[in-house]
Amino acid sequence: MTSVMETPAPASGQRSSRRIPGWARGVLWAVVAIGVLSTTSYLTDMPLLTSSDTSQTALRLALPILLAALGGLWAERAGVMNIGLEGMMILGTWGSAWGAYYGGVWVGLAAGILFGLLGGLLHAVAVVTFNVNHIVSGVAINLLGLGVAQYLATLVFEPLSGNPRESPPVAKFDTYSATFLSDWLGALENEQRVVLSDVAGLLRGLVTQVSPLAMLALLLVPVSYLVLWRTRFGLRLRSCGESPVAAESLGVNVYLHKYIAVAVSGGFAGMGGASLVLLEGGADYLENQVNGRGYIGLAAMIFGNYRPSGLLGGAALFGYSDGLQLSGGGTAVLALCYGAVLLLAVIVVVQLIKRKWFAAAGAAVGAGILYWIYWTNDELPSDLIPYTPHFVTIIVLAVAAQRLRVPKAIGKQYRRGEDS
């Protein structure tokens, strides 16, 4: 028997270093994104890529996507697939316009949340109580939300505006700016220094003419993380999405937690619809103004791998691409293709270092296709430009699907007392 204890060798495959925290990875990717945009702006002579106007527009357009993504996160972490976010957002647009017209902007926000919440409760009744297929119920909610909004708009708004497809003018949220910081960043942006002016432009858009609704929406991201991952209630709710039978055996009221999750999901979606109506620079209630943002919100949630910090990055990506096509048209989007080529080149190098040959080859092929598009066109067709966020959605879903950690019981039917 030896007197010295030997330290066991690490098992094969065991990591020698600690995993990088999620927040650190997010910061790293943000730095990479800013670096790519700055380089692209310089090489393509397109300062609009990092201008404060683009950043400001991107923030406004990202908010409904962010809120829809948060709604999807709450429902799907509890095991309920919610593709009815689109219909709940539509209900939120009508409710917010109606409430803002009669009671002011905060009443409008509350009404938008309430109408979205009612849509969420209807979805919960169908899928939790009656075990309706989640996708079928979600599609029905989308159709019902559109029909109810059209009917109510005809009933209430047509006598006021003379048009059943839009509301009369409604109150908007005031906006606020960090004046000293905004002026300093604006001066730095105008100097057109490489990297520094790009960073200043992006930051200036985030501190200039910001609405209370934007501040509230951004605050809901860490709040959702703390509730879902740092509280007993959140642990129980997430256990319903992983194994409801096991959760029930430990005394968790699975039905109650699913109802709460889907109701909160609908409320977030309704709040996202309200942001389309109540933010300065946006339109009043218009028929079909949601325009697929509920589905894009789901894509942002999937891009973020069902995590609050990740879906924030996804919403920023979609909001930025939408804001860029509005601000700069086909020329700016074409420059963004060049930036995507640079980003894919970085990914190729990283994958080669990791010896993931197939992933590196796929990224190289994608970079080649995008560079061919950039090289052979002076400007993208104007008919395709409004669909830039939708193209980004397809690409992101294709990439994100390779690394998903989906809740195990998502979309599955559950009845109390079942063994499996």
From TrEMBL:
Keywords: Cell membrane, Membrane, Sugar transport, Transmembrane, Transmembrane helix, Transport. It is a multi-pass membrane protein. Its main location: membrane. One of its GO terms (cellular component) is plasma membrane. It is found in: Cell membrane. GO terms for molecular function: transmembrane transporter activity. The chain crosses the membrane at residues 23-43, 58-76, 83-101, 107-128, 135-157, 206-228, 259-279, 330-350, 357-375, 387-406. InterPro entries: ABC_transp_permease (IPR001851). This is Simple sugar transport system permease protein. It comes from Prauserella rugosa. The lineage of its organism: Bacteria, Bacillati, Actinomycetota, Actinomycetes, Pseudonocardiales.
